Amino acid sequence: MQNGIKYSFYPFIFPLALAPITKFLYLCTKFIDMVKHIILWTLNESLQGQEKRQVLEEIKSGLEGLQGVIPGLVDIRVQIDHIIDTSNCDLMLDCTLESEEALRAYAVHPAHVAVANSKVRPFTIQRVCLDFEV
User: Fold this and answer.
1) Residue 33 — very low, low, confident or very high, per pLDDT cuts 50/70/90?
2) SS3 letters across the chain
């Protein structure tokens, strides 16, 4: 009888033993065909000092505030600090999206369009974009 009790738990233990492997495989599939969306902007030259800093911070908070709002947006970061003098742009957007379709949806999502139209476009004079699969 002792063996019967021991083995009667087997159907419950076996799936638990596979749980870490299953989770790993699931996470691997989530990162296949993801898309990086990188943008470099140059701000309007008329922006200087504290005004320039305020615009940079508003762009950063506006764009990073889209995390959790737009479906398919996995990660979003805006780099405005520690820019080295050899750079020829003022800030960088680095996004990871689930797919090309998610990137297309992000581009026209009302929350993204609102941030772009109010916090980014009025203050930038140049935009360079690179999208690629990871």
Assistant:
1) confident
2) CHHHHHHHCHHHHHHHHHHHHHHHHHHHHHCCCCEEEEEEEEECCCCCHHHHHHHHHHHHHHHHCCCCCCCCEEEEEEECCCCCCCCCCCEEEEEEECCHHHHHHHHHCHHHHHHHHHHHHHHEEEEEEEEEEC
